[in-house]
Write a structure and sequence with these properties.
The chain is an alpha+beta fold and 171 residues long. It has 2 helices and 11 strands. The chain has 2 domains: 91 residues, Multidrug-efflux Transporter 1 Regulator Bmrr, Chain A; 77 residues, Regulatory factor, effector binding domain (Multidrug-efflux Transporter 1 Regulator Bmrr, Chain A). The model has no long low-confidence stretch (mean pLDDT 93).
């Protein structure tokens, strides 16, 4: 990570369950930014047309990770109450539980490094992630990147704030 990039110390937090709407897609690693560029505006437009109120910052939810193949991702928006999706938009619930987290300030290009710091911190402490190895890849109970900065409102990428969270396995 660059000199301007800042990480908070990782910690464990309790999160309540959270309703959300998302658009799910499977893409190779190099397709993530294109997916975000297309699906975030589509999701915001869908929510706006239905006059649904957001309850937090947009996020990426990593459902299945296969670094050599495809990643199943969702772009999502948290909601205060459940709503019904359609063929494009899925309604879901982010599970309650204990999460390892850190906050990263800097450009999105370095988020993989921030994730690596969190995973390494968890390994050093013997944390057990809510993840299952499947033939499709690592299937996560909940792994999030929450984008607290709107790039349209803050053009300086060194000031972009992103929270990285990985759900821990239930005891």
């Amino acid at each position: 990570m660059g000199v301007q990039d800042v990480l908070t110390l990782p910690k464990i937090v309790e999160r309540p369950m959270q309703y959300y709407l998302g658009i799910r897609e499977s893409v190779p690693m190099e397709g993530i930014s294109t997916m975000a560029d297309v699906n975030f505006p589509s999701l915001f437009r869908w929510i706006g047309e239905k006059e649904i109120t957001r309850a937090g910052a947009p996020f990426f939810k990593y459902n299945i990770i296969d670094m050599a193949g495809l990643l199943e991702l969702e772009v999502g928006i948290p909601l205060a109450a459940p709503v019904v999706g359609d063929e494009l938009v899925v309604a879901g619930i982010l599970p309650a539980g204990r999460y390892a987290t850190l906050t990263y300030t800097g450009p999105y290009d370095n988020l993989m490094d921030a994730n690596a710091v969190l995973v390494g911190w968890g390994r050093e402490r013997g944390l057990v992630w809510d993840v299952e190895e499947t033939f499709l890849g690592d299937q996560f109970g909940c792994r999030l990147e929450i984008y607290h900065t709107d790039p349209a409102a803050e053009p300086d990428t060194a000031k972009w704030v992103t929270e990285v969270l990985i759900r821990l396995a239930d005891d």
